[in-house]
Structures are given as C-alpha cells and as structure tokens.
Amino acid sequence: MEIAELFFYLFSAMILGLGGIVAFSKNLLHSAFALFFVLFGIAGFYVLLGGDFLAMVQIMVYAGGVCVLLIFATMLSNDISQPEKSNLSFQTVLSVIAGGGFVLLLLAAFEKTTWNVVVPGEMSATTNTIGKLLLNEYILPFEVISFLLLAAMVGAIMLVKKGENS
Amino acid sequence: MILEGYLTVSAVLFAMGLVMFISRRNSVAILMAVELIINAAAINFVAFSRFVPSAEARLDGQIFAIFIIILATAEAVVALAIVLALYKEKKHIQADQLVGLHG
Questions:
Q1: Spatial distance between the Cα atoms of A102 and A90, rounded to a whole number of angstroms
Q2: What are the phi and psi torsion angles at A139 (to 5°)?
Q3: CB atoms within 10 A of CB A84
Q4: Is the dihedral of CA A56, A120, B60, B10 positive or negative?
Q5: Percent of chain A at pLDDT above 90?
Q6: pLDDT above 60: residue A30
Q7: Which of A55, A83, A84, B19 could bridge across to A99 with cysteines, CB 3.0–4.6 Å?
Q8: pTM to 2 decimal places
Q9: Of the listed ranges A2-16, A52-66, B78-92, the one predicted with least confidence
Q10: Is the dihedral of CA B15, B21, B23, B24 positive or negative?
Q11: At what angle do helices A67-77 and A28-48 cross, to 10 degrees?
Q12: Mean pLDDT estimate for chain A
C-alpha cells in the first residue's frame, strides 16, 4: 500500500509538472516531448488502477504513435530556425482565469459529493476479460470504431494528397 | 480518500489543456491541448471503474478508455493531415489568422 501511494505521488508529480511544461512552454518541441512523458505518467496511473492491458495500449498507441506523429507535424509545419517563436500565445491571463476557475469549481464539487466507494479488490490480469467483452457485449462499437479507423486513414491520405495537387 | 487524488490530478490536467486550448496560436499546440483533455477524461473513467464499479460490469470503464484512445488516435491523424495540407496552402498554421471561413 505504501509503495502504491509513493508511486501515485511520483506519477502525479510527473503528470502535473510536465503537463505544466506542455501547457506553458514557449517552444513547441519542448511541449511535444513533455507530452510524451505526461502520457507515460498516465500509463503509470492505469497500472496503479489495475488496468495492465490499458497501460500497454496507452504506451504503444499514445506514446509510440500519437506523440511521434505530433513531433513530426511540429517539425514539418514550423520554422525550425526560430523555435522560441513556435508557440506564441494570446489572452493568457484570461485563459488562466478560466482554467483556474474551472478547477476550483470541480474541487468544490468533489468536496460536496459523496461517492459510493467500495474497497477495491485484488488486482488481476484484465486482458482475457477485456478481449471477451470486446467480442461479445461490445461487438457493435468495436466494429463501428474499426470502420472509423479505416475512414480516418483514407481521409488523412486524401487530405494530404489534395494539398499536394494544388 | 484516494479516489479524490485521481480526480484532482485529472481536473488539473483538464484545466491545463483548457488553458492551452484557449490561448495558443499554433494549430499543432491546440491539438496537443485536445490530447491532454482527452487523457484527463480517460483517467476519470478508469479511476471510477476501479473505485466505484458496477457489480456485474467491473471493466466497463477500461473498455471506455480503450475506445477513447482509439478515437483520439483517429482524431489526431485527421487533424494532423489537415494541418499539413493547410501548411502547404498558406505557409503558416497560426489559428488566429485562419479566418477564410468568416464569410
């Protein structure tokens, strides 16, 4: 229990500290690399919450796929000679007020709400159960989302090719 | 209570994404902000499925998180394709100058 708590604070510090870099860094590449480690921290959270399969999916799809894609897009679409100017912001004060107010609202809501928390049981491997759920109860969303992925792939190719022709 | 710990981290992460989403000019940075917001939501799903599970469907939150990850990936792919096509056309991706649809 103590070790789990220690890791919870470690991953929290990782997510929030590096999330701050993502949100407020002036250099977009720094933001992209910090996002990589934020996603790793979230995978750590999933491990602490008993989602072993989910943590692996998070690392492989997010850290390995989406983040690399974001770094590629950053490098392809910005003037690399001036990285300090790649991530300018405007209305920072107003947006910080909006975000801070939102956090305070949510924290007040957490204070007032009583959750029906049960004592979590022993963690067990979830891959078997998730596989069975995906192919029985959730077969329709699974198929729909497969079609969505196909559409996204075709759409991405079409968009990039269209830009090339004109 | 440890559930509140997860909820607090995810709320702060969501707010960081919100601030970044509102204040950035670069379209890729806006996309990163969306990723932060989506991940904050996914943490909540998994935390609730561990601490407040329904009796017969203990893993529903994790299934939702998997679908969230897949949807976020598809969204990132299409959005980055749009950004690159836009960059070829306009030579910049500053969101506040892309006002061609104002009419």
A1: 19
A2: -70, -35
A3: 9
A4: negative
A5: 47
A6: yes
A7: B19
A8: 0.90
A9: B78-92
A10: positive
A11: 170
A12: 87
Minimum distance, in Å, between the CA of residue B99 and any CA atom of chain A: 16
Question: Chain A residue with minimal CA distance to B15?
Answer: A99
pLDDT tens for each residue of A61-116: 988 889 998 988 888 887 666 666 666 677 788 888 999 999 999 999 988 888 87
For residue B27, the model assigns a pLDDT of 87
Per-residue 3-state assignment (H helix, E strand, C coil) for A140-160: HHHHHHHHHHHHHHHHHHHHH
For CA atoms A40, A45, A47, A48, the dihedral sign is: positive
Query: Burial, B77: exposed, middle or buried (Cβ in 10 Å; 0-12, 13-18, 19+)?
Result: buried
Quick one: tokens of B11? 């709320």
Structure tokens at A151: 């559409």
Distance set, CA A45 to CA A25, A33, A157, A162, B42 (Å): 24, 19, 34, 41, 11
Nearest to A18 by CA among B32, B44, B71, B93: B32
Q: Do A95 and B36 touch (CB under 8 A)?
A: no
Which residues in chain B have their CB less than 8 angstroms from residue A118's CB? 51-53
